[in-house]
Amino acid sequence: MTFTLTPTYDDNPRLADLVGRLRDFLSGELAEYEADRQLTPETRLGREVLEPVWKRSRELGFYGIHLPERFGGQGLSFTELAALKEEVGASGRVLSHSVLGDMGGPLRAGSIFEFATEVQLEKYLLPVIRGERACCFSLTEADAGSDVRAMRTTATPDGDGWRISGHKVFSSAGPFADFSVLVARMAGTEESYSAFLVDLDSPGCAVLDGQTPMSGQHIESDIVLEDCYVGPEQLLGRVGDGLRVGLGRVTANRLLHCPTVLGNARRALQLTVDFAKNRQAFGAPLAALQSVQHKIADLATTYYAARSMTYDALAALDAGAKPRTEAFMCKLFVAENAFRIADEAVQIHGKAGLVRGSEVEWLFRRLRMFRILTGSSEIQKNGIAKDLLTA
After folding, report:
1. Considering only the top CATH level, what class is 250-389?
2. pTM for the predicted model, two decimal places
3. pLDDT tens-place string over residues 86-99
4. Which of 91, 104, 111, 196 could form an SS bridge with 248, CB 3.0 to 4.6 Å?
5. From residue 382, how far is each of 95, 329, 377, 388 by CA, in Å?
6. pLDDT tens, position by position, 18-74
7. C-alpha to C-alpha distance for 150 and 308, rounded to whole angstroms
8. Predicted confidence band at 390 (pLDDT cuts at 50, 70, 90)?
């Protein structure tokens, strides 16, 4: 894998075409759409803003592109999907998360397609693919983060269905979702969990504003349930399959978080290179200072290493391997070093990097979060050590 801040895919003509068209959409039509509405990363996003992007992305073939052809996708490999996710992350677009379906769309639904019945496909998932409905994922609770088995949201049998009570937090896409993929403990058990499709307008279900993360994005909700009834047709998979549904394809999902973050890091690095070239200091461009040159060289080398290991693990996944340890390593290395890139980017920008509203300042806040989101760095280290010491 060669180093460049503008990757090319000459060995894969289909991917090269997709990346080219995606870049055009992100920097052209979508950029204009955001500018017309004066959107920032901290704008509260409503369905009236998001749905046109979902549907336009679907028209262009990007929304749900990873899905099999029978669902209107192109059946992308993990590596191909990663390349598109990296471009989305590197675009600097506020609504980039809505182009491939990360926020409320087919990518948010994750692996539940393999568990869904035909009825569930028709009512819930196919409308998501078409950009007509949106979903969120509700697993985390105030005292159940990495330790998901500490959850207290409970499903109690009621006839053929269940009554669910509990309080979920950090349900991403919750503010504009129609339903949640929600995991609950089965009443009277300690180790049995089930997954349900919960309509968020159901009696006994309330969607509340969640806490605002340091990125400033208003994309999180609390889902509060009090004797909320779900019928047997809303059970995903079988009773007791909840964690398998909720954490399905965990290695693939862990790896696929990395390309978006690599894209964010690439954007921070590109902004820094451009700033160093154009910022005048002591009668010359900032880039003339050897100290700045060395920082940029270090950051580019770190980015290259993080990207190379990620795509190596993705290639193994595509080849049928299960790179579990490598996925832990990639999440750890990408998270820590993407933030390092953002930190040094702020340092090189100086005062310009400290100003709220500066893109590099927002990237700093966003990339700091990834050291905790989707499993903290410490959790990744636990996984690596366990795999090595119990082999």
Report:
1. mainly alpha
2. 0.95
3. 999 999 999 999 99
4. 111
5. 34, 10, 9, 10
6. 999 999 999 999 999 999 999 999 999 999 999 999 999 999 999 999 999 999 999
7. 36
8. very high
The answer to whether 100 and 85 have CB atoms below 8 angstroms apart is yes
Q: Is the dihedral of CA 310, 269, 218, 40 positive or negative?
A: negative
Look up the CATH number of domain 135-243: 2.40.110.10
How far is 18 from 225, CA to CA, in rounded Å? 42
Q: How many CA atoms lie within 13 A of 380 on its CB side?
A: 22
Q: Which residue has the tokens 């300042």?
A: 361
CA distance 40 to 73: 30
Distance, in Å, from the CA atom of 18 to the CA atom of 318, rounded to the nearest integer, reads: 19
Classified as helix, coil or strand, 255 is helix
The rounded distance, in Å, linking the Cα atoms of 364 and 270 is 14
| pLDDT the model gives residue 365 | 98
Q: How far is residue 280's CA from residue 286's CA, in Å, rounded to a whole number?
A: 6
Q: For residue 332, is pLDDT > 90?
A: yes
Concatenate the DSSP letters of all residues of 253-321 into one string: HHHHHHHHHHHHHHHHHHHHHHHHHH-EETTEEGGGSHHHHHHHHHHHHHHHHHHHHHHHHHHHHHTT-
Cα angle 205, 161, 174; round to 5: 30
Q: Per the CATH hierarchy, to which homologous superfamily does domain 13-102 belong?
A: Acyl-CoA dehydrogenase/oxidase, N-terminal domain (1.10.540.10)
- Two structure tokens written together for 222: 């609390």
Amino acid at 88: V
Q: How many CB atoms lie within 10 A of CB 278?
A: 10
Q: In this structure, what token pair is assigned to residue 77?
A: 């490999």
235 exposed, middle or buried (CB, 10 Å; 0-12, 13-18, 19+)? buried
Q: Is 242 helix (H, G, I), strand (E, B) or coil?
A: helix
CB neighbourhood size of 110 (10 A) = 19
Q: What is the pLDDT of residues 177-211, one digit of tens each?
A: 999 999 999 999 988 999 999 999 999 999 999 99
Extract the tokens encoding 350.
Answer: 């100086």
